[in-house]
Amino acid sequence: MRRRLTGAGGAGGGGHADGLFIGFQRVDDYRAPRWPDQTVPQQLHLDFAVDDLDEAEARLLALGAGRPDHQPDEGRWRVLTDPAGHPFCLVVKD
Question: Taking the complete model, does pTM exceed 0.85, yes or no?
Answer without folding.
Answer: no
